[in-house]
Each structure stands twice: as structure tokens, then as C-alpha cells.
Amino acid sequence: MALGKSLQKCEKVFISEADQYLFAQGTHYDIYKKLGAHFSEEDGVKGVFFAVWAPNAEKVFVIGEFNDWNEEANPMTETKTGGIFTVFIPKVKEKQMYKYLIVTPEGKKLYKADPFASYAEMRPGTASRVFDIHNFKWTDNAWIKKREESDVQKLPIAIYECHLGSWMKHPNTGDEGFYTYREFADRIAKYLKEMNYTHIELMGIAEHPFDGSWGYQVTGYYAPTSRYGTPEDFMYLVNTLHKNKIGIILDWVPAHFPKDAHGLAEFDGTCLFEHPDPRLGEHPDWGTKIFNFGKGEIKNFLITNALYWIKEFHVDGLRVDAVASMLYLDYGKKDGQWVANKYGENKNLEAIEFFKHLNSMILGTYPGVMTIAEESTAWPGVTKKTEENGLGFSFKWNMGWMHDFCEYMKLDPYFRKDNHYEMTFAMSYNDSENYILPLSHDEVVHLKCSMLNKMPGLGEDKFANLRVGYTYMLGHSGKKLLFMGQEFAADHEWNENTELEWFLLENPMHKGMQEYIKELLKLYQSHTCLYEIDNKWDGFEWINSTDTEKSTYSFIRKNAMGTKNLLFVLNFTPIERKEYRIGVPELKKYKLLLNSDEKRFGGEGLEQPKDIMAEKVSWDGKLYSIPYALPSFGAAVFEF
């Protein structure tokens, strides 16, 4: 983009008394259009209007490329109330770098990046950059309109969790080699369509200084990271996904922020963004700061930020990280490290109110957009409506299901009979929330092994184990999330410094796993019974959940109309069941749609009949049943 943006037509930007009042109240949902750096015109002169909230500063200056970083060239003026400092600087160009020099009453100088900057210098640089985000030509109106008319609870949602910087890299470029947002857009859209995913969830898009944090320690909440390009490049990515009918979810991190000198910590020399009491304002285990959710300006900063990503970047959902750490005052803390609320409890009343405010604003303003809670406890009503005293999220990650699933799948099959009900337990509470079943990045790092290497046994048994596990995940109530690389059974744990092991696709077993995931997701999207009723027993029925000796499970998924129902039969042992009998509800043909043992998926390829007629043989509490030769570690899905 040209650097001559200051020559284009623009209107005057200024901070009014109403702006200051609403910001202090926590209800100025367009405050990002006032605070930060914005092209403006004053008395016929074009330039940039800078505004920063630093109420405890003695003086504030703007320093940057446009004034040769002269610390006294551009002093800012404090508004009458609210602690906002402003200045208009002529002839500032797009992409020029700047910072705020904040002088405390004690004379200490702080060099801070702009909390509202929409673009930042590439790390290890820490400056902000001037950028106008309003020039991109969107072409996703049809997608947005359809989104507004949709009920996300009744849609197929199959999410590909992805770390952009390590999905794929340019060859022979060392550890950097990042694809740009635009390069990634064209490749990932094609891949997701081929694989039948409906959404992508991107980790670490907001600007962050340390690659190893994966984007979970944010310094630039309003800036797509410059690692992969400009804000317009990121808009191109979103627009491309929408043109290909792929939704995009961003990880969003309001739980904490790092102590980096250029960031939000002690922003104006005081605990401005964080709570001043370290028992409320710091995570001792993480070494990070906690936002002061009782302060109007802080709530405004965060809620407006969430709305900003949806409004300006057209994202379809936000997955909120570490929700439990916000809800509990004693999360990760020992006695003496936390302060009880006014009722003597460990509930963070201010964070609870924050979530209700956040979700009511997002879901009330943008129908069809999702908010997703990564909440790891049994906190009640996470996805219950706010008017019913819930937190108001669209979905909650089912961390309990994930834990039970992984622990069961790691077991030697001999011991699975003694842990049979780990796999059925999640259905006992399934109707308490709207769930997403996640097998996320957290399950394949820090010596936890890849999904493939969690499986017991050797060689082909590992792959067969994983295929039957993934089939159980697909059939189970709840939307789906799988981390990148697990769709082709990545061999090693995820490493953010290297690209995925794409070379494994030259191996027929890994290629077969990729084909199997593709078929599972095709089945998912083509059968409403797998997603239409996810949070009620109307959509799920156990046929046999108690076959502990054989470690098999069978169940039915149903839609509202009772048509194209699916019967799942799963064998979690290496023992073939040549005449396995399954109870069925109707005397009719059962059509085999998916057989995990097919050769194209890496199985043995034993021939199976395409249709099986039910017999008048009572079984599993049903009047009828079908016989099926169930392969070792075999999964079968029938339509009826």
C-alpha cells in the first residue's frame, strides 16, 4: 500500500465528552475508532490523530519515524476528564512506526506500543504502525447474510484448529519461512474444502512478542500479527475462506497479558489495565497480569476488541481461552495468594458480569456468530442464556470428554474392559451444555505424544485404533474440533518451529488416515442426525453401552424427522467378532455407509455386505437385530 494515505480525503477525528463518558462507563463499543492512530484532517491539513488513555501520566509524547523519534517534538494534550491524551500530527504516512513516550510523575520514561494499534512492527521490534483498516473491498455479503439467518446449534461444525506459522512453510528458509496471510488463504481454503471441514480456528493472530507463547500472551489486542502480513492481508484470508464457505474462529485471550515493557503492564506507571492488588492482578504460575474487570475502561477495551474482530475482520466466532482462570479467584493460587469475594467465596463476580456483558453484546449484535468457552471445570450454565443467569456462551469445550477419551484410548486393550464407562460418561451430562468435542493442540505437546502415538500396540494396530477412536468422536453428540496434523496421524508432537510432517502422506497408512477423516466429515455434513440435535437425548440413543467384556459400543444418532438415522458399531479390541449381533429398532435393511477396515483407509479390506436385513431376533433390548462381522479395532456406520 502506498505511503501517501495522508493525501486522501478524510474527516476530522476528535475525542468528545460523550466519548470519554461512555468509555469510562464501559459502553463505548466504537472506542477503537477514537483511541489509537487515525487519519484525520484539521483546518485543511491532513495527518494522523493520536489518542491514548494514560490517566496517571505526567506527560505523554508521540515519537516515531515521522519526527525522527524526537522525544519532545509532539507533546500530547490531556482532555478535561477521563485521562485521555491527544495530538494531531500532519503528514504522517501509512505504515510509519510510532510509540507513546509516557512520563510518570516521578519522571520515569516509559516507551509503550499503542494498545489500540491495528498494526505492529515485526518482532523483535515492538513499535506500533499507522494503518487504515477501512479500505479493503469485502465480497462476502452472501456468507454474512446466511450466517445471520442460521442457528449455529443446528449446523454441522467441524473445526480445524490451526497454527498458521507451522502449518506449512516455504522450503529451504530455516525456521521462519512463514506463509503470508494471502499465501496461506489460497492453500488452506482448498485443503479444508477437500477435507470437508466447515470451520478453521486460528491460534495466535493478535500481536504477541514471543513465538513460543503460541499467541496466548498478547501485547497488541487490535492488531493481526505482522508475522504474516498487514491487516488487509488478514482480511484477504477471511474473505477467501468465506468465498469457499469456510467459517473462521479466532482464539481470544482476555484472561491475562504479559509483562513485556512495551505492553499493557503498568502502562502509565501504575496498574492501569491490571488489578493493583497482586493477589487479584497476577497469575503466579504463568508470570502474567490479570485484567481489572471491575474497571469500566478495561471492560470497554476488551468487549470492544471482541466486537472489533467481528465487525472489522468479519470473523465468525471467538474461542475464549482460559475461562476457568477468570471465573475462580483462587485459580492456580495457594492460600494467601488470592482474595475472596464479598460473600467469602472464590467466584470472581466481576468476571462473571464481564462474560454476561460480552456474550449479550456479541450474540445480540451479530446473530450467527459463536462464542466458545475453554472452561475446564463443571461451572454451571456456561452456555445458558444470560437472562437465565447463565454466562451466555454459544458453546463450551468438553474438556471432560477429551480427558476421558484420551485416557481410555491410551490403555492396552486388555485393560479397557475395566475402564469401559470412561467412554460413556460424557453422555450422562451431555444435555447440561452445548458442547464442542476438542482434540486440540494441548493434547499433542509437552511429552503427551501425538494422537497416533497415544495408541497402544504397533504399526497398523495404532492406525486402526485411531480410526475407531475418531469414529466414536464423530458419532458422539457435540460439535467437533481436531488439531492440524492429526487428520493424517502426525507421528511427532506438534512443534511450532517446524511445519507439519506432510511427507508422511507418501506412506499409505498416513494417507489412508487422511482419507478416512475426509470420509468421516463427508458423512457428518451429509447427515443432519449428526449435528441437528446435539444437546438432547432426542438425538442420541444407546443400543449397547455395557458390553464391557468385548469393549464394544453401539448407538444411534437421530434427527428431528427420524429419516437417515445412523447406527454406529465400534470395537475397541484387536479381536475380530465374526458374528457380532447388534440390536436394532426396525425390521428393515441397514445400509453400510462406512467401514474403517477398508483397504483405502489402511485396513485389512475384508469384504462386507453393503446391506443387511434385520432379523426377528431380540437383542440389546430390541425386538430385532443384525449380524455383522466386526473386524478388530473395527468401526461400522449403517444408515436406516
Discrete helix count? 15
Please identify the structural class as seen in this structure: alpha/beta
Q: Assign the CATH topology of the domain at 5-129.
A: Immunoglobulin-like
Q: Shape from CA axes?
A: elongated
Q: Could you name the CATH homologous superfamily of the domain at 5-129?
A: Immunoglobulins
CATH class of the domain at 5-129: Mainly Beta
Beta-strand content estimate:
15-25%
Protein model, in words:
With 640 residues, the protein is of the alpha/beta class. Among the domains are: 5-129, Immunoglobulin-like (Sandwich), CATH 2.60.40.10; 537-639, Immunoglobulin-like (Sandwich). It contains 15 helices and 28 strands. The strands form 7 sheets. Strands 9-10-13-16-17-18-19-20 form an 8-stranded parallel barrel. A 6-stranded antiparallel sheet has the order 21-22-23-28-25-26. Strands 1-2-5-4 form a 4-stranded antiparallel sheet, with no helix packed on it. β6 and β7 (109-112) form a beta hairpin. α4 (181-195) packs parallel to α5 (231-243) and α14 packs parallel to α15 (508-526). The protein starts with 16 loop residues before the first helix and ends with a strand. The model is unreliable at 1-7 (pLDDT under 50).
Key attributes of the depicted protein:
640 residues; Immunoglobulin-like; 8-stranded parallel barrel; 6-stranded antiparallel β-sheet; 15 helices; 22% strand
Topology:
Blueprint: H1 17-25, E1 36-42, E2 45-53, E3 59-64, E4 77-78, E5 84-90, E6 97-103, E7 109-112, E8 128-129, H2 141-148, E9 158-162, H3 164-167, H4 181-195, E10 199-202, E11 206-207, E12 220-224, H5 231-243, E13 247-252, H6 278-281, E14 282-283, E15 288-289, H7 296-313, E16 317-320, H8 323-327, H9 349-365, E17 370-373, E18 395-397, H10 399-410, H11 413-416, H12 425-428, E19 435-439, H13 451-454, H14 460-475, E20 479-483, H15 508-526, E21 540-544, E22 552-557, E23 566-571, E24 577-584, E25 589-595, E26 611-613, E27 624-630, E28 635-639
Parallel strand pairs: 9-10, 9-20, 10-13, 13-16, 16-17, 17-18, 18-19, 19-20
Antiparallel strand pairs: 1-2, 2-5, 3-6, 4-5, 6-7, 6-8, 11-12, 14-15, 21-22, 22-23, 23-28, 24-27, 25-26, 25-28
Helix pairs in contact: 4-5, 7-9, 14-15
